[in-house]
Amino acid sequence: MNRNIIAIAIASLGFIIGLAFLGNAIKNRNKSENTISVTGLGTKKFTSDLIAWSGNFSRNSFELKSAYDELANDKKIIENYLVSKGIPKNEMVFSAVDIQKQFNYSTDVNGRSQQTFAGYQLSQTVSIESKNVAKIENLSRNITEIINLGIEFTSSPPNYFYTKLADVKQQMIADATKDAKQRAEKIAENAGTSLGNLKKATMGVTQITAPNSTEEYSYGGTFNTASKDKEASITIKLEYEVD
């Protein structure tokens, strides 16, 4: 008899505890559903303060030494030209000489392919990185002056960077967070409630594009280097409890 009473008591206690856990779970679930998730946007326009530009020059000859001597002379002419344009020597970086054998390919009367040595091609690259954006920009646009000196020179489009990007990112994060909070407050106000504690904050990747461009954002972030003027943006997602 006593054993039956004890068993019933234990079962009843377990049932009550189970109801308590269930009630608490339902309460927490409903509480977790009473949230507001918003996304804020921070943007900033700025102008690049660093430019990187490079050009390639080459010589061809059947004699390796002859090609090398001609290329060395071209390097000296290019260096003097850049100095005359106000470019310090310490901003010029000349790469190692690249040597390639050239061949002409043809087919003989029996249809077999054959190759004939066509000489050596030696090439070298000069690179400049400078904070004098306007000067290097002008240099890259008037590179025909080097070609007119008898040098086979190919200029690459300049790349533009910004050395204070970390400061820009911090300001955009602050603006995006403020924007998200204002959105959340407006939603709560219209719903007749108020914001509670911040539960979660998630930052998106930085997207840097040319202003008013049609460039697409990428999952890992976009970083435009072709435009001197840039526009950066970042998103912040905030999740608030609702009281």
From TrEMBL:
Signal peptide as annotated in the record: none
Annotated TM spans: 6-26
Cited InterPro entries: 26kDa_periplasmic_antigen (IPR052022), SIMPL/DUF541 (IPR007497), UCP029033 (IPR016907)
Keywords: Membrane, Transmembrane, Transmembrane helix
Pfam families (alphabetical): SIMPL
Keyword RNA-binding among record annotations: no
Cited PANTHER family: SLR1258 PROTEIN
Protein name from the UniProt record: SIMPL domain-containing protein
